[in-house]
From TrEMBL:
Keywords, in A-Z order: Plant defense
Keyword Disulfide bond: no
SUPFAM superfamilies assigned: L domain-like (SSF52058)
Gene3D superfamilies (UniProt xref): Ribonuclease Inhibitor (3.80.10.10)
InterPro entries: Leu-rich_rpt (IPR001611), LRR_dom_sf (IPR032675), RPS4B/Roq1-like_LRR (IPR058546)
Entries under PANTHER family matching the protein: LEUCINE-RICH REPEAT-CONTAINING PROTEIN 57, OS09G0267800 PROTEIN
Protein name in UniProt: Disease resistance protein RPS4B/Roq1-like leucine-rich repeats domain-containing protein
Record domain Disease resistance protein RPS4B/Roq1-like leucine-rich repeats: where: 116-199
UniProt keyword DNA-binding present: no
Annotated organism of origin: Eruca vesicaria subsp. sativa (Garden rocket)
Coiled coil feature spans: none
Pfam families membership: LRR_13
Transmembrane feature ranges: none
Length: 235
């Protein structure tokens, strides 16, 4: 009946296989466990809502998480790619393929990651310095942190109507971000500070409810005139 497991900053922890039987756990916090090399398969943990592996630098593979996960913190891990996830039409089980760079390959036997992780609200991949590509983003996210990664561009964001925070700070290889940001009707914080290759934001159509806009350390040559329409902008 264990509900919360908090072993954060246990720097000698190398193995958590004994946790395989804690099927009722709701929160699993292993932040800062720098010697932990592998994470258990939690896809059967139907009550699990929060996983925190931030600072687990030896974790190289994206974790197998349950579809009902709400918060996933992977900051400063060694994750290199996002796996494809295929849903079996026979038994509704999920198959992970770490050879790919996206959550899911679309075909007749699979569903989109936007469905697979439809409850995910917070995804933190910041400072995963080896992460170069993310192609599909869960549709119900509230907060997305990709700062300090090696991504060069983002996929379409038009479906992220609930996104409140988009943090891309210090994505030094990011050269462009998707147009039509105005479709992000809930976005209040956009952080592009330190995106030193980003030269132009004039065509982004920034959402009018934006409250905070960070552009320090970018390569922009002028602030777009459309900024005058951001009536909620405070910073």
């Amino acid at each position: 009946m264990l509900k919360r497991i908090k072993l954060c900053h246990s720097r000698q922890l190398v193995d958590i296989q004994e946790l395989q039987n804690a099927l009722n756990v709701e929160v699993l916090d292993l932040q800062g466990c720098t010697r932990l090399q592998r994470f258990i398969d939690t896809s059967r943990f139907h009550h699990l809502r929060v996983i925190n592996l931030s600072g687990c630098t030896k974790i190289k593979s994206f974790p197998k998480v349950p579809p009902n996960i709400e918060e996933l913190y992977l900051k400063q891990t060694g994750i290199r790619s996002i796996p494809s996830v295929t849903l079996s039409s026979k038994d509704n089980s999920f198959t992970y393929d770490h050879g790919g760079h996206k959550f899911l390959d679309m075909d007749d036997s699979s569903e989109s990651i936007m469905v697979y992780l439809e409850n995910l609200k917070v995804l933190d991949l910041s400072h995963c310095v080896d992460l170069e590509d993310i192609q599909v983003i869960p549709k119900n996210l509230n907060k997305l942190y990709l700062g300090g990664t090696s991504i060069q561009e983002l996929p379409s964001l038009v479906h992220l109507s609930e996104l409140v925070v988009l943090d891309l700070e210090n994505c030094v290889q990011l050269q462009k971000i998707p147009l039509r940001l105005s479709t992000l009707t809930s976005l209040t914080v956009l952080n592009l500070s330190g995106c030193s290759e980003l030269e132009d934001i004039g065509d982004l159509n920034l959402p009018r409810n934006l409250e905070e806009l960070y552009l320090a350390g970018t390569a922009i040559q002028e602030v777009p005139s459309s900024i005058k329409y951001l009536s909620e902008l405070a910073y």
